[in-house]
Amino acid sequence: MPAAIEAVDLTKDYKVGFWRPRPYRALDGLTLAVERGEVFGFLGPNGAGKTTTLKLLVQLVHPTRGHARILGSPVGDVAMKRRIGYLPEHPYFYDYLTAEELLTYFGGLFGQSGADARARASRLLDEVGIGAERRLQLRKFSKGMIQRVGLAQALVNDPEVVFLDEPMSGLDPLGRRDVRALILRLRDQGRTVFFSSHILADAEALCSRVAVLARGRLVAQGRISDIVAFQPRGWEAVVEGVPEATIARVGERASRQQRISEGRYALEFSVDHPPERVVADLVADGGRLVSITPVRETLEDFFVSHVAAADAVDRMERR
Amino acid sequence: MTGTIGRIAVNVFRESVRDKVLYNLVAFAVLMIGASVLIGQLSAGQEVKIIKDLGLASMSVFGLFMAVFIGIGLVAKEVERRSIYALLAKPITRTELLLGKYAGLVLTLVVNLAIMTAAFYAVLAWMNWQASEGLRKSWEAPALDPALLKAIWLVLVQLMIVTAVALLFSTFSSPMLSAALTFGLYVVGHFNADLRNFESVVSSRAVAWVARGLYYLLPNFAPLDVKAQVVHGTPVPLGYLALTTGYALLYIAALLTLAAWIFSRRDFK
């Protein structure tokens, strides 16, 4: 069975400049495969090429080089489009339509009959949490509500593969939780979900695998736990009520020490110092442990180091 | 394919209705009724002719503004507001999208013209009823002349060309430029015959060839304008209507083919 998504050497140059247009490489030789039933996170900072990739996969832009296949068919294939769903970044829909009408219209484009399309629209709007507002024109909708309508329209055809470009953007914490639950439901139904995000926590909570993009290039791919950069490099303890002398003594082993408020401290240790012993020392003289968390490179740190590395390579190549 | 185009077309029509585009009908009705009352008091014997001239000219102008200003936005607005992203991920081709948009605006123009025609004939019927037997006999053509429909048909055909021109420009240029180019082409298209006779005015062969080339390239609107003949009661044969309509349909097909070709190659950044 062919992979859900397959990209080979996918490259996109945009022309920038008016008088003397020169190419700007938004995506550089992306090769990846996403298996069916996977929730795949496509991570990277703004401008990394995530949206360009998604646009190439739904053929909103044409590749400069390389090709991609979805469910074994080339990206422009109309029959294949019956089997996919797409939520664009910062979506916008016809504001003169109601949410119900929009979904019915889109359902019609998949050949659904009027009554069938209306029934599906109603079910999907329930699923994404749009209530009585579904009969209002979309011009009266908030950004978060438009995002929910966007998710509903991406599912109007019961797609096998769903592309979601920054599905959490514009959502409040409640909305983010709902979207996470929705993505996991889609996974449980056996659908493939390919979503882009710049938030590592989203990917950690949802993805079986991720790809990390920086400056248009793929810099890491695999399970988050397998990507070395995201493995813990230490841990942080927050304690309170620990005598100053104890803090000073134990703090000698810490790589970072910070006073948060009166009697409350945060101490960071490397993985060489096992937390069990250090915590025992800290609380021995009457202190209390408030929290203990692993310290790992954040997606932001990872981007920064890779972007710096990419810059260095660029400079070398220019010499 | 026709189902998809039809659905997109109906959505364009719905947009026009909800954006209150058909309010222009109110302006048309007020203009027609106001003019008929006013002219009835001023001129003797010529009022029906003047109302016919005015009615047909306003249908042309109102339709022209709709065709240009909605036409240039059909695709450009979708791209600018990014609503095209979700739409193109659906199982439709870009050509179907373009043809659906075109059909939708033509549908809007047909409905608009049909209502205007009804209002136009209502005003003429009222004038006919008011006029004395002697006055009616002095008219070049009867007030409720069915031949008016021929002129209105060709107004629609012209507007169909204008819509295709606007759509073509909007696939690659900005709305303002598209509007300017479409209006420009509409005006030039009315004086197209002059280009044909250019060679009798200039001595340079090259210039004459360019003029001849432009004559064939640019739309020719003059033969599609039979308002004056109809108002004066000069017969317009059905064969003439078929020929001019055929020319227009070929021209529209060429414009839409070119538009679809450009549109299919575009990147939506």
Summarize the structure.
Chain A is of the alpha/beta class. Chain A has 10 helices and 14 strands.
Q: What radius of gyration of chain B results from the CA coordinates?
A: 21 Å
Q: What's the pLDDT, averaged over the residues of chain B?
A: 89
> What structural class is derived from the secondary structure elements of chain A?
alpha/beta
What does the overall shape of chain B look like? globular
- Looking at the structure, the CATH topology of the largest domain in chain A is Rossmann fold
Looking at this structure, what is the CATH superfamily of the largest domain in chain A?
P-loop containing nucleotide triphosphate hydrolases
Characterize the biggest β-sheet of chain B: none
Helix percentage range of chain B: over 70%
Helix content of chain A: 25-40%
* Spatial shape of chain A: globular
The tally of helices of chain B reads 13
Commentary on this structure:
The complex is a heterodimer of chains A (319) and B (269). With 319 residues, chain A is an alpha/beta fold. Chain A contains ten helices and 14 strands. In chain A, strands 6-7-8-3-9-10 form a six-stranded mixed sheet, sandwiched between helices. A four-stranded antiparallel sheet of chain A has the order 2-1-4-5. In chain A, strand 4 (65-70) and strand 5 (73-74) form a beta hairpin. In chain A, helix 3 packs across helix 4 and helix 4 packs across helix 5. Chain A is globular. Chain A starts with a strand and ends with a helix. Chain B has one domain (2-265). Chain B contains 13 helices and no strands. In chain B, helix 6 (94-130) packs antiparallel against helix 13. Chain B is globular. Chain A binds chain B through residues 14, 55, 58-62, 78-79, 81-82, 84-88, 90-94, 96-97, 105-106, 108-111, 137, 150, 153-154, 163, and chain B through 3-4, 7-8, 11, 14-15, 18-19, 81-86, 88-93, 265, 267-269.
